[in-house]
Amino acid sequence: MEYKANVADIAKLRKMTGAGMMDCKKAIEEATGDFERAKEIIREKGKLIAAKRSDRTTSEGIVLAKVVGTKAYMLALACETDFVAIGEDFTSTAKAIFELALSLDIIDAEALKNAKLGDHTVLETATELSGKTGEKIEITGYARIEAAVCASYVHMNNKLGTLVGFNKEIDATVAHDVAMQAAAMAPVSISREDCPAEILEQEYKIGMEQAKLDGKPEAMLERIAEGKVGKFLKENTLLNQPLVKDNKLTVEQYIHNADKDATVTIYKRFSLND
Question: Any residues with CB less than 8 A from the CB of 98 and at least 6 apart, and which?
C-alpha cells in the first residue's frame, strides 16, 4: 500500500531539514515515514543538484570579513542568482560558516570545508543548501591572515572584500584606506617581490613582441620590454599604485607619510564578479 505523508510529518521534516514542502512530502513517502531515511533522501537530492549544476557560474553570493585582534578572516560563499543570495537560508548559512571559522581559528579553505557544523561538514552543509535552493552553492574563497595590524573592507554590495596586514601599528584611517584601495584596484600582489614570476615573464614577452611589431631596433627591445614590466608593476602592485583618494601619491608614499617604517606584509582579495 502506498504511504501517504500527513501535514504534521511534512512540517516536522521541513523544520528538521529546511527543505521545501513538496520535497519533504516526496521524501517522507519514499521513506514510508522513516524520518532518518527521509533526511538522507533530502541530502542525496542536494548532492544530485550540486553535481548537475557543477558547471554553472556562481557570480552572486556574499563576502564576509572581520578583524579579531592581530588576525583577520574573510569568506566568500557563492550562488547563481541574487534571489538566492539575499534569502534567509543562504545568508544565515554563510554567517554560521563564518562564525565557525572564527571560533575554530580555521587556517584555510580545505580545513573549513571539512570542519563540522552541527552534524555535517561545511561542505555537506553547502551541498544540502544546493538541494534546498536548486542552485550551485560553493565556497569560492576563504582566508585567514595574521599581522601586527589588520584591516578589512567589504564593499556595500557584499560581493567584494579585502584583508590587509601591516608590519606595525598604523593609523586606522590609513589602514582602512589601503584596504579600500586594494578592493577598488585589484592589485595582483603587494610589490614586485611577491608578484608571480610567470606574470612578469608574460608582460616581458608581450613588451618584446609589441616592440618588434612596432619596428623598434634590436638594441632597444630589452629596454622597451623592461619598461612594459615597470608600467605593469606601477599599475598592478598595491604599494606602487597611485592612491585613489590622491593620485599624486603612491600607496607606499601614503603609508610612509603616516609612518616611514610601516608597510603591507599580506593582502587578500575576493570578488564574486571576477
Answer: 64, 66, 73, 75
Render pLDDT for 26-85 as a digit per residue (tens, 0 to 9): 877 777 778 788 777 777 666 555 555 555 667 899 999 999 999 999 999 999 999 999
Domain boundaries, the chain: 7-52, 54-146
Concatenating the DSSP letter of every residue in the chain gives ------HHHHHHHHHHH---HHHHHHHHHHTTT-HHHHHHHHHHHHHHHHHHTTTS---EEEEEEEEETTEEEEEEEEES-HHHHTSHHHHHHHHHHHHHHHHHT--SHHHHHHSEETTEEHHHHHHHHHHHHSS--EEEEEEEEE-SEEEEEE-TTSSEEEEEEESS---HHHHHHHHHHHHHH--SBSSGGGS-HHHHHHHHHHHHHHHHHTT--GGGHHHHHHHHHHHHHHHHBGGGSEETTEEEEEHHHHHHHH-TT--EEEEEEEETT-
User: Tell me: the pLDDT tens digits for 166-216?
Assistant: 999 999 999 999 999 999 999 999 999 999 999 999 998 888 888 888 888
For 7-52, CATH number out of 3.20.20.70, 3.30.70.20, 1.10.8.10, 3.40.190.290 equals 1.10.8.10
What's the CATH number for 54-146?
3.30.479.20
Please list the residues that pair with 165 across neighbouring strands. Answer: 150, 266
pLDDT tens digits for range 217-254:
888 888 888 988 899 999 999 999 999 999 999 999 99
pTM for this prediction: 0.79
